[in-house]
Design brief:
- By secondary structure, this protein is of the alpha+beta class.
- The protein has three domains: about 80 residues, Cytochrome Bc1 Complex, Chain D, domain 2, CATH 1.10.760.10; about 70 residues, Cytochrome c-like domain (Cytochrome Bc1 Complex, Chain D, domain 2, Orthogonal Bundle); about 45 residues, SH3 type barrels.
- Helices cover about 40% and strands about 15% of the residues.
- The protein has ten helices and seven strands.
- β1 and β2 form a beta hairpin.
- α5 packs across α6 and α7 crosses α10.
- The termini are far apart.
Amino acid sequence: MIRTQTLILLVSCAFLFPHSISLAQAEKTESRSAPAFPDVSAGKRMFERHCALCHGIDGKGGRGPNLNRAKLFHAPDDAALKALIFEGIVPEMPAGWFFTEEEISNIAAYVRSLGKIPAEPLPGDAARGGTVFTRNSCSRCHLFAGTGFAYGPDLTGLAERRSPAYVRNAISAPAEHLPEGFLLVRAITSSGRAIEGIRMNEDTFTIQIKDATGTFHSLRKQDLKDLQKLRGQSPMPLYKTILSPTELDDLIAYLFSARGLQ
């Protein structure tokens, strides 16, 4: 009889004060899942397991941006960083919906700790690197510090996105370090005209190509004689056969001299 009365009392309280009970439960859950002091060491282990593939084992960047900086473009504060880890960025960064609140808090704390690491010293000379950049006509394909041509990626914010080691490898052997989703294509029109460039968009019926002059071409596939997808190829020369190690050092120093301009 006593158990029955107790059950009736609990049900009545839940019916009369549902908000109070749910609020108490939420506060209890939050206190368990979001610790006041995140564990940076645990965050480092989670980062190395789930994030290092794109951001590098030390967070200096690779396929994903360099995280060794005080200000993160997509995460100006801790709340935004935690939301970013949970939600991801379509299509570049997968969502971390499977992380617990505690794990997200730990990962965010570790990422923030990376911003306290001093910038990596570079052996090259930025002034000489500017000469290398000009002599090799890099501005014919790339924007840098507001000048140049936007056929290839804008290099202004390179220091915020990539590590010096990654940039060196990408310059030395571009075809071996193509950006995610990059594809060089060659289309032959019904009149025999060849159009080669970077695929900007493609669906079942059409393809859009940007050529080396910056001109965009929207083509219907049914009107093409041929469409070649040049996988693993890059319009950028193999600079390890063109530049000396010292020139590469200087060029990287020049590109990283624009840190913070973007």
